[in-house]
Design a protein that fits this description.
With about 260 residues, the protein is an alpha+beta fold.
Length: about 260
């Protein structure tokens, strides 16, 4: 005579399945997050090859982080300048981006961070203005700087070339000291905070492209910043003294830096 499951046996089986699901689902989520972070690293490596190819064609000089191509409205970014080497169809002006996603120029985890949805996903990576310079039309001309030559960068395995950003800017200085930020022009403050908001994008860290062309993951300070209001830029960054610092002089043995001074 065949006998079915009793109610108690059925409940035991359901409980076991629930326990297994509770154990395995976080593991699966971590694996997916790691896959997205690895895809982000691949994006940065390809961007590094494109920047290197650009530099070889332009007297071994980095592309400017952005410039104003009058009479177009908005800035033209470094992504457009290196796009011929990856052919993603990046538009000439940032104003034409809309909500477009362009090839290697968007991180798979872009939408997870603070402020990430109010601007184009294709701005999810930011060039290091300390070596790329820039001619941002949102800044007075006295703040414009020419890009550096490759030869001027001495510690190529340590200097950041491209970092992750929150979506509003295409460049950063990597500055996270609140005392120094407070004395800056508003555009500098915004673009530096834009970087800070994204530097814990992947499991309390983010990916960086360094000047020698290799990409690497670095942890952010924990906590990364303190919220001071509801606005996008209402944050007070926590100064990083370890893995990635603003200036090499802060910690010569740091994993990476934005400025060699």
């Amino acid at each position: 005579m065949k006998r079915g499951f009793t109610l108690i046996e059925l409940l035991v089986v359901i409980a076991i399945i629930a326990i297994l699901a509770a154990i395995l689902f976080p593991v699966f989520a971590q694996a997916r997050a790691k896959a997205r972070q690895t895809a982000c690293l691949s994006n940065l490596k390809q961007a590094g090859l494109a920047i290197s190819a650009y530099a070889q064609d332009y007297d071994e000089t980095y592309p400017p982080s952005n410039y104003s191509a009058a009479p177009l409205s908005g800035n033209t970014s470094w992504q457009f300048m290196v796009d011929p080497y990856v052919k993603s169809g990046f538009p000439v002006s940032n104003a034409q981006l809309g909500q477009s996603v362009r090839s290697i120029f968007v991180c798979p985890d872009y939408a997870t961070g603070r402020g990430a949805t109010f601007n184009s996903p294709s701005r999810s990576y930011v060039g290091n203005r300390m070596i790329m310079g820039g001619y941002d039309r949102n800044l007075p001309p006295e703040y414009w700087e020419a890009p550096s030559s490759l030869a001027k960068v001495q510690n190529v395995a340590q200097v950041v070339m491209v970092a992750e950003g929150g979506g509003a800017c295409v460049w950063t200085q990597g500055l996270d000291d609140p005392a120094l930020l407070g004395a800056q022009h508003a555009t500098f403050q915004a673009c530096n905070k834009n970087y800070v908001m994204a530097r814990d994008r992947h499991s309390k860290g983010s990916d960086y492209l360094l000047a020698d062309g290799h990409a690497k993951y670095f942890r952010a300070p924990d906590p990364n910043y303190q919220e001071t209001g509801s606005g996008v830029y209402d944050i007070t960054p926590v100064v990083s003294g370890g893995s990635v610092v603003f200036a090499r002089s802060q910690n010569p043995s740091a994993g990476a830096c934005f400025s060699e001074n």
